Amino acid sequence: MKKLINSPESVVADALRGMAAAHPELAVLPEDGIVTRAEGPAAGTVALLSGGGSGHEPLHAGFVGRGMLAGAVAGPVFTSPVPDVIARATVAVDRGAGVLHIVKNYTGDVLNFTMAAEDAEDEGVAVARVLVDDDVAVAADAPGPGRRGTGATLFVEKIAGARAEEGAPLAEVAAVARKVVERSRSYGVALSSCTTPAKGSPNFELGEDEIELGIGIHGEPGRERRTLMTAADTARTLLDAVLDDLPEYAGDPVILLVNGLGGTPPAELYVMRAEAQRVLDERGVRVARSLVGNYVTSLDMAGCTFTLCRADEELLRLWDAPVDTPALRWGL
Amino acid sequence: MKKLINSPESVVADALRGMAAAHPELAVLPEDGIVTRAEGPAAGTVALLSGGGSGHEPLHAGFVGRGMLAGAVAGPVFTSPVPDVIARATVAVDRGAGVLHIVKNYTGDVLNFTMAAEDAEDEGVAVARVLVDDDVAVAADAPGPGRRGTGATLFVEKIAGARAEEGAPLAEVAAVARKVVERSRSYGVALSSCTTPAKGSPNFELGEDEIELGIGIHGEPGRERRTLMTAADTARTLLDAVLDDLPEYAGDPVILLVNGLGGTPPAELYVMRAEAQRVLDERGVRVARSLVGNYVTSLDMAGCTFTLCRADEELLRLWDAPVDTPALRWGL
User: Fold this and answer.
1) B56 flagged as catalytic
2) Closest chain A C-alpha to B141 CA, distance in angstroms
3) Which chain B residues have a beta carbon less than 8 Å from that of A258?
4) Does domain B185-310 bear CATH number 3.30.1180.20?
5) What is the ipTM of this complex?
């Protein structure tokens, strides 16, 4: 394993020390894995808190800032943060109007955020929760914990963050967050596995001409192994899966995320953006907004995911609202 | 070779089609490799043009926009664009106050930008040029073409772009660009080679525990091969080389770039940012501004480069000026 790290044990805290050095507008507790805004949201507004296992950077700490998260909690690599830390962060970010927990749908995260919410409520903080479960690699009716949360998490954090910034009460911020989840779907492809620092070798092996469709962001096996395809065919395959699952699609404009998994360079992501446009044009789907880059990664995995959100006027207005975070910034 | 592309022949045009789709504020000619602002700089202001071989994205097209470049010319992967295209772009971006060519110091780029400047001047466009040669991997007094241009290119484009936006005449914009070059140095490390689409296999091979110091951004061999080190030792090694070469350093604040080469995920870059801070603190060097991310890449190479610019009040003022490009955006 070759990585620019000091040790598998210290990688999360070290990366957070780097965030602290690079972004003085953040308040960072590297050993606890807590990142908040140095200057919190306005008093009386809802605070958004997200988090989960590390290894998906810039998610979540890179999205802490004006117009998006009030705080993020970073667990060990691919491992949920413990309830106590989530609870402490929840109490810390509350500005008197309650806290929205944005939780990717993984068993550990759901459990730990649930316990943390109870603890925070015991301390007088109102907590609402939205579960993000956008990954169509898992069938909607499959037995088990349900669909995984992936790229749509960014959409939820951006759009609900804008609504909180407008001063909406907790129930309304939670409602728009759930609306984003209902309208968003993702699907991804890996060209290589990721290598966790602790394990030191790839989580799964792919042959020289093999790709894996429907991978998760924790090195889980995918839904299907295929022979390497052109970018055009890959984009079509991903978008077919997403569009077939997008509920009540009836010509609405979409927000598109072309997301790199960590090891894929910008040029390839832009090639995929071009092919996404071609497919969506053929299908009569209008891309109203889009993002291209490494936003929800899986360590050093090569590959990408597509996320579509079926937008409306409200969602586009909130998407366009100013945001100022390390990883997302516009309209200031 | 596994890449998200359609073919080695089409990769540059395909990626530019993706940029066009993602960024409607750009005017893109994918087949010609020309990217300009849909709405050019104000009439009577200096226009900045840069370019070179592709494979370094987001450099240069990702830096086209308000406060930075007026245009960028993208050649084939790792191959300079031809003079005719550079000349056409030069004439196209001129707003009556002349054009600054920002050229990384590689033989092909220097030759082709020189010929293009002559052609554009024949058409009545005033052209000035700044050569960027910040890579200390090549000794300053080595025979040959001189030092290579790498990370400092971003600094030059940002700072000279801000000066142009202020309405400064061509000679002054060129002067501040040269000041940035004089005060900037870079050094990098690779954990893997890059693989060009045309060749399809890595440019050089590194063993399981080997790294290469002093690599260039075109898969050139480095200056020294070493055994894998901790992030702390790697950061110290890179910064020693940069600081030893930074001319007339006397306690000035610096601008620091921790740059990913394409295949290294954000978390590792932030670990390197933390270690850079530790080393610079020890050396008494104050980091006034910093950037962490994939800005000047080498296809899918794993590794990173550090660039330092010895700043002063003028350079920090211009650094902080608003910028609105696909890859760099703040202060709007």
Assistant:
1) yes
2) 31
3) 18, 22
4) yes
5) 0.97
